[in-house]
Every structure is written in structure tokens, then in C-alpha cells.
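Justification of computing resources. Each target in the renewal requires a structure prediction run like the one illustrated here; the chain below, 131 residues long, is used simply to show the kind of job we budget for.
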Amino acid sequence: MTAPSLHVLVVEDDPQLRTAICDALGAARLHAVGVADGAAALDHLTFEPAPDAVVLDLRLPVLDGWSLLAWMRREGGLRHVPVVVLSGAPLEHLELVGPFEPAACLRKPAGATELLRTLQQLLGAPRDDGG
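Resulting C-alpha cells:
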């Protein structure tokens, strides 16, 4: 069996949700790394190879998702990494991320199927249903 080739960084402060997302991505043959706050994500993005995509909550401790997304868009090597915003923030707050060009915005509680479908469309990732 070959190792997963696509790397997704999951930035979510809820440990149960972060684990569930990483498990679902792993089951779909995506390599997922989860971090609990924006500062940990900043460290990961600074010192590790760029991920193929980021799943990002907006309301995070230490460094919020808006600030992390703004930083990513200023960084040359990360500017084009697709970011899927996954947040329970009110709709009007999600509209504020528009200038930072997220690839998609999903409202919590988005299901694993919706998130996987979104990532597969963005990354051309393999589908578990044989497609």
C-alpha cells in the first residue's frame, strides 16, 4: 500500500473535532496533521514543507484564523495554498475572509462528506467511492 501523498494541515481548537477531521481525511488517503491554535499552525507552516491544503477554523486561541490566513496570503510560498475555512462564526464574519481568497467556506457543523468533497475538488484527490 502506498503512503498518502497529499498533506492537509487542520487548524482546529476543539480536540474532538480536530481528531475526527484528521481521521476522516486519513480514511480518504490524505495525510492530515492537526494543530490546536493559530500560533502552532504558523510554526508548522514556517518550519515544515507547505501543505497541499489547509482546513482552518477562524475562532482560535493565541492567533486567530483571520490573522493566520492574512499571513499566509502575504507569504510567497503559501499564497497559493488552498484554504478551506471551517467555522461556526456567523455568516457576516465569514464574509470578512473574502479579501483573503479562501478556496471555500464551510459552516460548522459541516459533515465529513462535505469537507472531503470540497478537498477532493480542490486537490483532485482520490475518492473512496471508486471515482
